Amino acid sequence: MSILNTSILNAELLEQFDASIADVSDALTMPPAIYTSADFLAFERRALFAAEWLCVGRSSRIPAVGDYFTTTVNDEQIIVSRAKDATVRAFSAICQHRGMQVADDAGNCSKFTCPYHLWSYDLTGRLLGAPAMERTTDFDKGDFPLPPLKVELWQGFIFVHFDLDAAPLAPTLADYLPYIANYELEDAFCPGTFTLHDLPWNWKVMFENFNDGYHANKLHHTIQDFCPSELAAFPVTWEPTSNVIFRTNGYTHIDGGFNATTKALLPIFPQLTEEERWRSTFALMPPTLCFGTAPDQAFFFIVRPKTADTIDLEIGYLLHPDAPKHPMFDHLYAMSDAGVQVFVVQDQDATTKVQRGMHSRFAARGRYSWQEQSHVFFNRWLVQRYRRHWPDSPSDDVTHDV
């Protein structure tokens, strides 16, 4: 007989999205179920994470030939390496013999060797050696490379795509370029990153919180009073061809900083205009990268969903290349980071409780403030893709014979 498991991916839910992409003055927040459902995250893995450009880190992490690191992208283990021709490559870390992970670390090498049966691969994923396969009929090493991903570098960030024929990413981020051009991000100094594991909220809650101007000097009162909600601005109307959603937020004084002094502590990026020194920008490049700027730094969050209720979050800063030359750099950097940690703790408490609230029977579809315009743009990015990949007959995927 057949048991029909009712899927969340039904026509009723698809229709509910319409209310979340209206004008911000009329729109409703997204349905709570899409933040808590394992089935919906499985759909998003196919519709978004398997079909969009995904940020995996900074190219400065692998500056030399042979440098590599491993990471997880949409539940897939991949290797990102600097090949002999100095290009950045990305490919599966799964050995094409018996499925063992070839590497799960970072470092420098001339080849990757699977420890199980010593199949070896070069820095592009090409199979170099396969011991004792000479008696295997029609075995050709060229048929067994580590499957590649498409790679694009943008402003020093490495993006990958599972579709080797994917359209370029850079043209879809063009609206944001004028706001970051004077940071010269390709040459920026990254002191390193740190990763927070198993944070208890949905990946979309992370994106919404990062670009939420409404809570700026409410949740972060005192420490962010210099960058208040009423100075949020949305300079670009989101277009369907765009992969970036961003806003600016003005300051009450020049060279603001997200720390106890409310002033920039590290050297200011020297090419910034006076206008740029009076504001921050906050940008989403879904579904993985949150990026922001202040006069003395840029900052980024790489979001990796684990379950509907948990994510891993990699956080890093970008500074002017001359910043480490400052005689008090280590102290100033520590002070700056300590200030950011105040925001992190406050945001963690808020997003944990938001996720908990999404599970409540009383979870509502709320209304937006004008200071939340970015959320509606993010909704439009999401819904466009949800509609594109929505199953014609959701029940087809959840009918099981027993």
Give an overview of the whole structure.
The protein has 402 residues and is α+β, with helices and mostly antiparallel strands. It folds into 2 domains: 54-161, 3-layer Sandwich (Rieske Iron-sulfur Protein); 172-385, Naphthalene 1,2-dioxygenase Alpha Subunit, Chain A, domain 1, CATH 3.90.380.10. Helices cover 20% and strands 25% of the residues. The chain is built from 7 helices and 19 strands. A 7-stranded antiparallel β-sheet has the order 2-11-10-5-4-3-6, with no helix packed on it. β8 and β9 (127-129) form a beta hairpin. α2 (38-49) packs across α7. The longest helix is centred in the C-terminal third of the chain and has 30 residues, at 329-358. The radius of gyration is 23 Å and the shape is globular.
Strand order of the largest sheet: 2-11-10-5-4-3-6
CATH architecture of the largest domain, please?
Alpha-Beta Complex
Beta-sheet strand percentage?
Answer: 15-25%
Number of strands: 19
Instruction: Report the major sheet.
Output: 7 strands, antiparallel
Please report the distance between the alpha carbons of the first and last residues: 6 Å
Binned, the helix content reads 10-25%
CATH topology of the largest domain: Naphthalene 1,2-dioxygenase Alpha Subunit, Chain A, domain 1
